[in-house]
Amino acid sequence: MTTLTHKAASRRASKPRRKITRGTVGLNVARLVLGLFFAFPIVFMLVSSLKPDEQIFGDLGSLKAFLPVGHLSLDNYRTTLDTVPALRFLLNSIVVSGVTVALGLFINSLAAFGLSRLQWKGRKIVLALVLATLVVPFETFALPLLWWVNHLPWLTHDGFTLLWTEGWLDTYRVQILPFVANAFSIYLFYSYFQSIPKELDEAAIVDGAGWFRIYRSIIMPLSGPAIASVSILTFLPAWNSYLWPLMVVQTEELRPVMLGVSYFFQLNVEWGPMMAYSSMITIPVLALFLAFQRNFIGSIAASGVKG
Amino acid sequence: MTTTVAPRTTTSRSRTRPPSKAHTRSWVGFSFTAPAIVMLLVFFFVPLILCFLLAFTNARLISGEPTRITGLDNFQRLFSDPLFWKSLRNTAYFAVVVVPMQSALALLLAILVNGQGRAKNFFRTLYFVPVVTSIVVVSILWRFMYASDGLINSMLQLVTFNAVQGTDWLSNTSTAMPAVILMSIWQAVGFHMVIWLAGLQTIPMDLYEAASLDGAGRWDQFRFVTWPGLKNTRTFILVTITIAALSLFAQVQVMTSGGPLDSTSTVVYQAVRAGYTQQATGYASAISLVFFALVLTVSLIQQFLTRDKDA
Prior knowledge:
The structure holds two protein chains of two kinds.
Chain A: H1 3-14, H2 22-48, H3 53-59, H4 75-83, H5 86-117, H6 123-132, H7 138-149, E1 153-157, E2 162-166, H8 173-176, H9 183-194, H10 199-206, H11 211-219, H12 224-240, H13 243-248, H14 271-291, H15 293-305
Antiparallel strand pairs in A: 1-2
Helix pairs in contact in A: 4-14, 5-9, 5-12, 9-12, 12-15
Chain B: H1 7-16, H2 20-54, H3 73-79, H4 82-113, H5 118-132, H6 135-146, H7 151-160, H8 176-200, H9 205-213, H10 218-229, H11 231-246, H12 250-255, H13 267-277, H14 281-309
């Protein structure tokens, strides 16, 4: 089975005409069957979002369930927008994941820069501590964190006077700040920065540049691939996050997209609008994925390399 | 990047610099790292320590009364709670099925799409699509497909000419967990396919050429070249799938709410129910601590086992 790579390589090397053997046909059939297995629920969702409920159920017994045929319309999307503040949820998710990515890029690359380019006392300990956090899944401390953010103070003002408030529940910041500093992002930046020659820093110092200048004008512009990986690996979980917002957000105006699904679990489930909503919150990510699929797959692959 | 030519002058000059430079570097280096350290302290280390502390108290999420130390009460309550043991069993069941199946299927997929070519690239992308789809969306979708009048039963009837009548997969205690398992593997397997692929690409091509010169067939090449070459990847995949499997939550929350008859309740699901729904932070911390111990033990065992074998 593994000889695929090998065969592909030798085929490229000797460049014979592509032979269609029983083996390659079998492999392609296997690929296709698996492809159908992975595609059919998504196709079903997208197609059903365009059909009225009766037709969704009518088509179930045949392959029409996966084909955009029959009475197609955007009615389900209209119903969704009328019954659920879907645009607001989308906006919230864009704000939360956008700010998380932006802050995360900045803070984690700064940290990695400090850890990889500068020599300082305690550097090794900090690095070890950061890497140690990787073995602890979020679920371990999610509930103590919930208690903790409910007790954290925040400085606000009521127009004239500054005052302390307690508790972060029901805010944007409680959805963003806990996920900004990320050990894995630091690690990705760190290992990328290690591959950039240190001579560049020294030359820049001779030219009178400060360390922040080196970070901003030399290291970061050279770190495109790491920036892409970290952006993707921060964006995906932020957009898809469910457990955390479920616990910390009650107000409708602040809910991210994934919490919106609960609107459809009321008494009579209307499947058409639910499929429309699911499509609405999935299509942006799918589009991003298809546009940047090399980066997506590359960044996931990078996460395995450390093993 | 014209400055790259300068290193020689750099070294000679930096030697003449005053020794205070090392000192400057020290606080500069720390200050670059400080924002991340502070945030990790506040949002990682403090909650983690709180988990250990609150587990021995009666802390509640919202409470007028001050928190009291209650010693091992939470753990006593937990270990005498049949729901906990059931959740633990369900979590173990899920992990024991998912870990081998998902890693094997992921490896198969990786081997099928390894290498260059338009078709392979296309299928690689296709297999990966569920990974970027939110587990919540996937859960709703499959909930609909699993319904008694849903897609899966209709397809079963179509394929078997009405010979097989499906069941209401999620409301049946014996089929609910397998249904969650199938869906979870479907969603996550592409992720691990990509990691296997990264591992496959680290194996030098000439090893395969040497093996085939020695007359090794495909299976032998897999056994003697690919499998040993994937040693590190294997450990990583086993550990990450196991931890993800032990953390099972969203699927259960969206699809079954732990039911029917707690047959899909899991450790994390129980922790969330205790700490969020019932606001019993102390009790939830105790559950989280057990979960943490579980994760730690499993990853230590796996690391030990995989290290031992090649010694």
